[in-house]
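Invent a record, attention on tokens:
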Amino acid sequence: MTDFSSHHPDWWRQAVVYQVYPRSFADADGDGLGDLRGVTDRLPHLAALGVDALWLSPFYPSELADGGYDVADYRDVDPRLGTLADFDALAAEAHRLGLKVIVDLVPNHTSHLHPWFQEALAAGPGSAARDRYVFREGRGPNGELPPTDWQSVFGGSAWQRIPDGQWYLHLFTREQPDLDWSQEEVREDFRTTLRFWSDRGVDGFRIDVAHALVKDLTEPLRDLGALELSGEDALSHLPPGTHPFYDRDEVHEIYRDWRTILDSYTPPRTAVAEAWVPGARRALYARPDELDQAFNFEYLQAGWDAERIREVITDSLATARAVGASATWVLSNHDVVRHTSRLMLPPGTDENAWLLSDGTAPRVDEQEGLRRARAATLLMLALPGSSYVYQGEELGLPEVADLPVDALQDPLWEQTGHAIKGRDGCRVPLPWTTTGPSYGFGAGGAWLPQPPYFARCSAQAQTGVEGSTLELYRTALRLRRKLLAGEELTWQQTATPGVLLFARSDAWRCMTNLSAAPVPLPPGEVLLTSTPLDDHGPGGGTLPPDTTAWLA
């Protein structure tokens, strides 16, 4: 059996990583906003859950124009969330409990409050300070038109004009100016940041928007024309590596440079890329001389369709194997509708329209959604590679789709003129207890309103309760650690369409029934199921719809 314990340098290859969105995890000082001391206080929950590592979404100084992904200082802690001493205490306690620590790195853009950008605004056109960012003259007789037709991910032009007439590039909000990675000063500053956190004991990094750092800035800048209407889908309509600002071949030089820094530590620091690119291109980010892994968004987007899931699993394993990496799997994160709700939406549902209807068109059966989410989780945890779990999954939390519009914080809501409701529904602070002003999140309430049903979803309500989602996760993670062997799976044939069955290293099997009717289980000992079986034993039994079983 391969050793992927926390002491092995390749611990990440089959790890379970728990994503913590700090502002919504736990609030120790009672100001309504989660903080680092709150995370530290709740680390025993993660240790008892059985995960291998926690990934901290940004906790850096930020005005929260994009939920913390607008960073004003990459080497400090937002005062509302704590101090560097608080971070050091968190890392020390995590390591004492056997947990690795991964932090978010946001290298594509800074906050407009970053000292560099403030210096650039003051320095004026043609200055070295502006060279760190992407400033350009506008088009039109008086420069009144943006330099290109490039669009922001959050809607509208990706260019913002400033009083002296120049425009700066921001692929996200206007408070997030893009850096110019052709500048050596930019590259050296991020080398310093990698060392700063690695020296503080960080075990790895999650690289935000890893595919967008390098832009084609040769003059004249290229318009995208009709391709811009498809956003990142335009990648499929251009030769690989040639999009003006997504997934350019030159970006890999940066990660090869970073690998020398990550490997200079003992054990080497790990890294995972957030790269929204097709599978074969995504694998390039995880080559041995670059980052260790890249997020697999095809799996998250596969829906509840057996053939599509099987295709994605097969392709994902093959592309990861081709570069010597291990695959990654994720069902929810801070940017998408929670899978307890999402997997119940009919195929083709416009998720934003569903959110705008406050989750009523169509209305989701949350109990059926939880049943499907539990099955999806056991399937994911049985796959070779690393599973990334988003905070609250283990409580079975659904998307809070009916947040009142006056409570929304996501910049998408205002940036799009109230056309896109945004991501707040998956960022509602966690419930820890059955009572209290914020169900145990903190003494001073929560920065987003929590629904009353959070009481029965809380960790307190589920701890020690047989059949609860929390206890299912704990059992599954404990059993998974015992069963891990190798990084292969073998598909096995079933007589029923809509059923997935595979073996892991001949030691155990996973079967998921995505059909509408019960199906026979193969012979063997049932180790764990996502929902109780009506009948099972040494000779097999039946597996209900929307259920996963692990079998010896």
Notes: The chain has a mean pLDDT of 94. The radius of gyration is 23 Å.
